User: What shape does this take?
Amino acid sequence: MIERDVDRLIVSDLDGTLLGDDKALQRFTGWRERHRDTVALAFASGRFYGSVVQSMQQTALPEPDAIVGGVGTEIHDYPSGQEIPGWHEEIGQNWDAERVRDIFSSHSEMELQPEKWHSDYKVSYFLEDADREQLDALKDELKEHGIESEVIYSSNRDLDFLPARANKGSAAAYLAKHWGIPAERVIASGDSGNDHTLMEQGFRGIVVANAQPELKKITGPHIYHAQNGYAAGVLEGIEYWWNTDESD
Assistant: This one.
């Protein structure tokens, strides 16, 4: 729960975005401490809450106000660990993770990822070099069985099936609304395909220089392509958007 009078929100992916350059991460953490009274911070990761907390203990990551985990299937307050109320009710209709596994059990080209990457709201596979037609066909197959899904594909290998409306972007938008922060006061950063939805919510987007080609393709007036990678690119993008706000 935020007990400060914040008026902005930074939402950032971790692996390949904030994590990857230790010196740049230390600079970001210093920036965070200088602005924590007025700026909220949320991490948005494909990993779950416990894994993110473990990374915080092992790196210079600053303490956030919330953690969006499981590619947007969970939203936890930090440090309490309590779930932000209402999100699972929002996304849980027409969804059954065990049924998803059963439906795809005959797909030999799809390899289930280790159990640590799964939850009641996320089923994950390895699938090499899938194209849009193949992904759409998988989504349609679930729909034929009455399951509405969100299909997230990143790094040309990682395939996640989530409840419809569940993704990093929609979870971040739900969190911003929960905190009363308008979309135009949110800056989101990422490096891969599962961060694509963070760039579709009316937020100010940052694509770091080391991003995967799938994210570098995104363009538009609300997208900034940083010249620097990792946390240095996040800081560069924040400065760009803040300067843009001041000049408007």
Remarks:
- The chain has eight helices and eleven strands.
